[in-house]
Write a structure and sequence with these properties.
31% helix, 9 strands, binds iron/sulfur cluster
């Protein structure tokens, strides 16, 4: 079958595959298989995945990747990075995971889009985390399809950013998460302050730490 041939020949650059719980955002606690792709278009100063930033040649065929992911009993696949949308093979990876019965989540910085994702985007969970280094730019297609916005609360984030017109639909649907950078106490306090300011304007946002780090798991 042509698709099987494509799966064998198509390859993506994979940093690591591992089981854990989803430790961030609206799906926190979900048992998950993480597929960490290699390579990112941004350089956030506090990035906790520095080893996944460069575009390396550790290619894995999609067929081998799916075989590896299927060894897990968990049926929620999280494609993360690095930045997943730097990979032209992303639509085929998502399609293959869906065909194998996985629910699929993509964690993205929101700056990029790949043609071919439109037909899949409604059926998956896209978590967009806009970044200060990109002036919080989010691609229109990500704004259209994302199911949550997750903001890292650091020195750069403030209430004005969250009240931007392009983020308003997410605020109105309670789909905004504040995640204190590095689970640091001062950023928790700042997150709670922002949460209160937004509540005074009629919006409810969640403050959620990186739960996997609190539990000491990957
Ligand atoms: S977008 Fe994500 S992976 Fe890329 S540098 Fe920023 S935190 Fe790291």
């Amino acid at each position: 079958m042509l698709r099987d041939k494509v799966r064998t020949e198509r390859a993506v650059s994979v940093n690591e595959i591992y089981e854990t719980i989803q430790g961030e955002g609206l799906l926190v606690g979900t048992p998950s298989v993480f597929i960490r792709l290699q390579g990112c278009n941004l350089r956030c100063p506090w990035c906790d995945q520095p080893e996944a930033l460069e575009f390396k040649e550790n290619l894995m065929s999609l067929e081998d990747l799916i075989r590896s992911v299927k060894k897990s009993p968990f049926r929620h696949a999280v494609i993360t990075g690095g930045e997943p949308f730097t990979h032209s093979g992303l639509p085929l990876l998502v399609e293959s995971l869906l065909e194998e019965g996985f629910s699929v989540q993509i964690e993205t910085n929101g700056t990029l889009w790949i043609s071919g994702m439109e037909r899949l985007a409604e059926t998956i969970h896209i978590t967009c985390s806009p970044k200060a280094v990109a002036k919080f730019f989010v691609h229109p297609q990500i704004l259209k399809f994302a199911k949550e916005l997750k903001f890292v609360v650091d020195d750069e984030l403030n209430t004005e950013v969250l009240l931007r017109k392009d983020f308003e639909p997410f605020l109105k649907k309670d789909l905004v998460v504040l995640q204190p950078e590095g689970n640091k106490e001062r950023f928790f306090r700042k997150a709670l302050d922002i949460q209160r300011e937004l509540a005074l304007k009629g919006f409810s946002v969640r403050v959620i730490p990186q739960v996997h780090k609190l539990l000491g798991i990957p």
